[in-house]
Amino acid sequence: MCHVIVTCRSMLWTLLSIVVAFAELIAFMSADWLIGKAKPSSSEDVDNRTGGAQEPYHPTLGIYGRCTRISHMQLSRRDTLCGPYAENFSEIASGFWQATAIFLAVGIMILCAVAFVSVFTMCVQSIMKKSIFNVCGLLQGIAGLFLILGLILYPAGWGCQKAVSYCGHYASAYKLGDCSLGWAFYTAIGGTILTFICAVFSAQAEIATSSDKVQEEIEEGKNLICLL
C-alpha cells in the first residue's frame, strides 16, 4: 500500500533539489560567464529615448554563447544579440571549455534526474529495500564532483583566442585580463555548494520519513501522513 508521507525536512530537500537543478541549468545556458571590457559607442549610435549617444556597453561571453551589440538596429530598443557562437561542440573556443561543458552537462543531467525523482518521494520512500533519499543524496554528491571539475577547468580556458578578443591581450589561463566574472559563474558556484548541502540534507529527509511518529501513524492505518 502506498503511503503519502510529507515532512518539513523532506519537502525542504525536494524544493532545494529542484532549485539547484534549475539554477545550474540556467547558469550553463547563459552567456554571462565573462563580462568583456567596455566597447565605446560610435558617434552614430544614438539612444532613441534621450537623443544622446549611447553609453559604452560590455559584451558577454559564455561557455558556448555570447551577447554583443548590433549597430544601427532601429527596429527595437534592445540592441544586443545573444546566441551560440559555436554551431557544434568542436567549435567551442577552448578544449578546457569543452571539458567544462561535458562535466557540467553530466552534473546537471544527474541533478535534473534527482529533482524529478524527488517529487515522488512523498509516495515512494524506498527502491529494492534501499532508501530513495540516500540514493538521491549519493547521486547529488557525485553531481557536485562533476560540477567542481567543470568549474576548476573553466578558468584554464581564459587564454583562448575567443576570450582574449573579449578580455584583452593580458588574459590568460586563470587571469581575467580586462574582463570580470558574470552572474552565471557565481550562480554555478552557489548551485554547486547547494548541491552538497542537498546531498547532506537528504539524510535528514530519510530520518524524518522513517521516524517513530511516522511508523505509529502507518500502524494506525493512515495513508496520508503530514508531520512538521
Please describe the topology of this protein:
Layout: E1 4-7, H1 8-29, E2 34-35, E3 60-61, E4 65-69, E5 80-84, H2 95-119, E6 126-127, E7 130-131, H3 132-153, H4 161-167, E8 180-181, H5 183-209, H6 212-219, E9 224-227
Parallel strand pairs: 1-9
Antiparallel strand pairs: 2-3, 2-8, 3-4, 4-5, 6-7
Overview of this protein structure:
This protein has 228 residues and is an alpha+beta fold. It has a single domain (4-37, 92-226), classed as Butyryl-CoA Dehydrogenase, subunit A, domain 3 (Up-down Bundle), CATH 1.20.140.150. The protein has helices at residues 8-29, 95-119, 132-153, 161-167, 183-209, 212-219, and strands spanning 4-7, 34-35, 60-61, 65-69, 80-84, 126-127, 130-131, 180-181, 224-227. The chain has a five-stranded antiparallel beta sheet with strand order 5-4-3-2-8. It has a two-stranded parallel sheet with strand order 1-9. The longest helix has 27 residues, at 183-209. The chain is elongated, with a radius of gyration of 23 Å. The model is unreliable at 43-47 and 73-77 (pLDDT under 50). Pfam families: L_HMGIC_fpl (PF10242). This is LHPL2 protein. InterPro entries: LHFPL.
